From TrEMBL:
<protein>
    <recommendedName>
        <fullName>Large ribosomal subunit protein uL4m</fullName>
    </recommendedName>
</protein>
<feature type="region of interest" description="Disordered">
    <location>
        <begin position="108"/>
        <end position="155"/>
    </location>
</feature>
<comment type="similarity">
    <text>Belongs to the universal ribosomal protein uL4 family.</text>
</comment>
<keyword id="KW-0689">Ribosomal protein</keyword>
<dbReference type="GO" id="GO:0005840">
    <property type="term" value="C:ribosome"/>
</dbReference>
<dbReference type="Pfam" id="PF00573">
    <property type="entry name" value="Ribosomal_L4"/>
</dbReference>
<dbReference type="GO" id="GO:0003735">
    <property type="term" value="F:structural constituent of ribosome"/>
</dbReference>
<feature type="region of interest" description="Disordered">
    <location>
        <begin position="21"/>
        <end position="47"/>
    </location>
</feature>
<keyword id="KW-0687">Ribonucleoprotein</keyword>
<dbReference type="GO" id="GO:0006412">
    <property type="term" value="P:translation"/>
</dbReference>
<dbReference type="InterPro" id="IPR013005">
    <property type="entry name" value="Ribosomal_uL4-like"/>
</dbReference>
<dbReference type="GO" id="GO:1990904">
    <property type="term" value="C:ribonucleoprotein complex"/>
</dbReference>
<dbReference type="InterPro" id="IPR002136">
    <property type="entry name" value="Ribosomal_uL4"/>
</dbReference>
<dbReference type="InterPro" id="IPR023574">
    <property type="entry name" value="Ribosomal_uL4_dom_sf"/>
</dbReference>
Length: 291
């Protein structure tokens, strides 16, 4: 006995006729929906391997006190790691780092007294009824002069936490921004033999290093250099351990020594004709970006 399947639509009839007219080849599996999704997620094979990031080259800056053992700044380049000094600019990351740093500077020592902390008796000022005046309790009421403060500030900690990787990204973004603005330099050393402010100020003026933050890789700043530079206006010297994103953005120019440069993945190389052409090309690109 045949089972009735009901009336079929024209589309179902057409599918049946096509399947009967064109048989499916044997040995070929029908693709399923799950397999097609897996193939869509697979990366497309590229004919060539991805090229490595090229380092960023800048000229070596002249030191405070040049010596015979120092390399010639005119014939020496500094290779900067592109993962550190060619990072995409992220204004949101810089904002988070600056806000977190400024929050840590707040003292949070503001303090006011509530009605329970103000000196005085807790006696009721006047009877509740019969005077025709407003109801009042004790003299420490926030509505009265000399009373407590309602919802006033109390000592608190305003510091906020930020993930370590976000702060590291902020350092890379800030350094990359200084490199793109051509306000970043590396000198071989920051040695200064005498604690004389006048001679060092004259040297900085000759080099054109005003409004500059100098960063040294030493654990402690040399005494002679610290005494000579601390009274010079618009100039600051700090160590790489205490460097913050806020300082990188605050100062117009950043100058590192060779030891601090190694911590930020820089390398001093001898300049060659190929390097000269490459650095010229890099600065042309930077000029186009800044324009």
């Amino acid at each position: 006995m045949l089972k009735s399947v009901g009336r079929r639509s024209p589309r179902q009839i057409l599918r049946t006729r096509v399947s009967q007219a064109v048989p499916r080849p044997t040995g070929v599996a029908r693709p399923t929906r799950s397999s097609s999704r897996v193939q869509a997620r697979l990366p497309a094979s590229s004919p060539t391997a991805p090229s490595l990031l090229e380092p960023v080259y800048i000229s070596l800056s002249a030191p405070f006190k040049p010596t015979r053992t120092d390399p010639d700044p005119e014939e020496t380049l500094v290779a900067l790691d592109p993962t550190v000094f060619n990072h995409p600019i992220r204004r949101d990351i810089l904002h988070l780092c600056v806000v977190q740093y400024r929050d840590s500077l707040r003292q949070g020592s503001a303090n006011t007294k509530t009605r329970g902390e103000v000196r005085g008796s807790g006696r009721k000022i006047r009877p509740q009824k019969g005077t025709g005046k407003a109801r009042l309790g004790d003299a420490q009421s926030p509505m009265l002069r000399g009373g407590g403060i309602a919802f006033g500030p109390k000592p608190r900690d305003f510091s906020t936490k930020l993930p370590r990787k976000v702060i590291q990204m902020g350092m890379r973004v800030a350094l990359s921004a200084k490199v793109k603005e051509q306000q970043f330099g590396v000198m071989f050393s920051m040695d200064w033999p005498e604690p004389k402010t006048k001679t060092l100020a004259k040297r900085l003026e000759d080099l054109g290093l005003d409004q500059t933050l100098f960063v040294t890789g030493e654990e402690e700043i040399p005494v002679t250099l610290e005494r000579a530079i601390r009274n010079i206006p618009k100039v600051k010297l700090t160590t790489s351990n205490t460097l913050t994103v806020h300082e990188l953005l605050k100062w117009r120019r950043i100058m590192l020594d060779a030891k601090a440069g190694r911590l930020f993945r820089t390398d001093i190389v001898t300049q060659s004709p190929y390097c000269r052409a490459l650095i010229h090309f890099v600065f042309l690109i930077l000029d186009q970006i800044l324009i």
